[in-house]
## 1
Amino acid sequence: MSIVIVGAGIGGLTAALSLHAAGRSDVVVLEAAREIRDIGVGLNLPPHAVRELSELGLGDALHQIGVLTRELAYYDPAGRLIWAEPRGLVAGYRWPQYSIHRGALQRLLADAVSERLGASAIRTGQRVTGIDAGRGDGVTIEVTDHDTGRTTSQMADVVIAADGIRSSVRNSLYGSAIPLASNGWVMYRGTTRAAPFLNGGSMVIIGDETQRVVVYPIADGVLNWLLVRPRDETRAETERGNWNVPVSIEMTASFVKDYRFDWLDVHQLVASATEAYEYPMADIDPLPQWLFGRCVLLGDAAHAMYPFGSNGASQAILDARVLAYELATAATPDDALRAYDAQRRPAVSEVQLANRRQAGDVMARVSALARRGAHGDAATELQDIERRYKQLAGFDVEALNNRKSWSVSAATASAG
Ligand SMILES: Cc1cc2nc3c(=O)[nH]c(=O)nc-3n(C[C@H](O)[C@H](O)[C@H](O)COP(=O)(O)OP(=O)(O)OC[C@H]3O[C@@H](n4cnc5c(N)ncnc54)[C@H](O)[C@@H]3O)c2cc1C
């Protein structure tokens, strides 16, 4: 069975590794970019994502490039602790939580794909520009070569569209562009060379409903920070879904001029950044369909979500593992794709909606309590929110520790 994956991002590369581990060898990844470069800043991999990457044999490599996250802590705008909880191994998970540079993670996955599936498994400079999934027993795609500009047709038994938040494959399948929604807030993100803070594995969220700052280490001597706040109406909105728009570090630092605490000087951190980007908060409504004939959506293409809760990359990784499992064990490819859709679409839709709530009313409620000095009530509220979110996103500690693996042994793989 020939499988083409569109997009060598976190989801597409994990899908390639998962399919290979499940016994599929005829797998190609087409990537529009001419080369895979270390783009992006930090992201977080909670234990449900780390479990999947570990079961793909990448646990030690992750440990080399990531920083163990040991605590999540919420602070009010005056820098007073509202609530903290342990994360990863210290919270009782069988797998750690890592904070990591997105580019380093993508590189690790890409190297593993080249090593295991062969040097030509990832084809860069190949943009998918058209798709016909109406054939029933396969999919035809149009692919444009970056260097020559030539477009050719290619056929595959199954196509996995993992081409990100602005997925052109998704938009073609739907017949029109799926709109990127925004709540009017903008995320500013960057990294700074700086000394560790708090316990060296802390991820902190500071602020209230008017502005929120998140800081965590992603490498030895590198802190990742991001802040979200309503868009300044006097500035034009930058393109939604474009992760790569640089922004003035000076302007960004001015937003946090009062965030100077004895345990972390956020203003200094942002002002000394080596890079900063702006990104209008964008997601899509939960989609009614991920499956079109033998073409299926995966990752942000299927369920772009607000980047709250550390689950954009994680859910893409889970998609990849479930899809590979189903393709290896179901009686037919069509059964497998339907099973993937039935399992993942409702579950991830809930995470998308939960992230919208986290971005809005949740923070307002917690901040109102903290402002009244009711830090205990605010802590109870946060604890409850985090508990429910873990259940929705698949990292409730008991459930994750005891869930069966999506690794496929030779004995369970079907011949299909
Ligand atoms: C440049 C970039 C920087 C990012 N930075 C961050 C960050 O700092 N923090 C964070 O939390 N998240 C970041 N993200 C988003 C994060 O990677 C995703 O939310 C998450 O990992 C889900 O991954 P995905 O594989 O679905 O999509 P992505 O990781 O976005 O990957 C999609 C891939 O598809 C490729 N592609 C797009 N269109 C086509 C096409 N027509 N044909 C072939 N290939 C195509 C893209 O070039 C990209 O490599 C970034 C994404 C990108 C693309």
Note: The chain has one domain: 3-180+289-402.
## 2
Amino acid sequence: MRRAAPLLAVVVASVLALSGCAKNARPKAASANPVTSASAQGSPIEASAVPSVSAAAASPSQSAKGKPPTPTAKALSSTKPPAAAPGRPRGPVTGPGPAGSIKDTGSDAVALTFDDGPDPKNTMDLLDLLKEQGVKATFCVVGSRARDHPEVVRRIAAEGHTLCNHSWQHLQNLSEREDSYLSWDLQSTNDAIRTAVPGARIDYFRAPYGNFTPRLIEFAARLNLKPIYWDVDDECYTTSKYGVGPAMANHMTAIVQRDTRPGSIILSHENLKPHTVATYRSLLPWLKSQFRLIALP
Ligand SMILES: [Zn+2]
């Protein structure tokens, strides 16, 4: 089994990981982005907050109590608390995405999903835009960032958007980690969100880079989190090819306009990506004109 990596490797891997989400993302060098560097320096996530295996085992998170016995994703629909409005379907629990993850909204509505925040600048700017346009979206937040920017998480929730667990520190090989780490990672992310927003509803989990496996989905299901993938990837991370100006906006827009269909889930990233917000300024009115846009239910 893989043991804990040396600290430096973990830090480097985490910083790189946080610069993008999709599988084929080509992360920018951490030093090239001052926000990444500052954040990494100012955030002790890798150094102190992530427990070793033994620490995780010694300090089980509080919600370990009452943990259901590893329901399958399919069983989740029956174990779900009766929070949904009666008679209103909540969409599929499993889908045709990797390892059975969900990749459509289950209706004709289109869901915008924004990953890797909260980012104190770009998430706030995006929230301004969404408010202006009257659109609700889904934010897949990284636990350590939620801990560092609780005010942003509070605003996401207060303005009616959906929160999604995107793991504690965006490890590309999350699914290969040991059981105790996985439990700690997913629970800590939920805890960070609920520290910011007590009682926050968290129904979704997105694996870093979309690297879902049946085992990871099972761990998410223990927390009643549904695995959410996407079917449209706006490729906002391809900055080495398209830069962060008009060429990138055109690229992202072309993809979304070409690939989005009723029921689509669109993958975007706002963390460290002001060009995503800039692109959505023009893209959002188009999306609104073509589709009903929803936060995941
Ligand atoms: Zn991501």
Note: Residues 179-196 form the longest helix (18 residues).
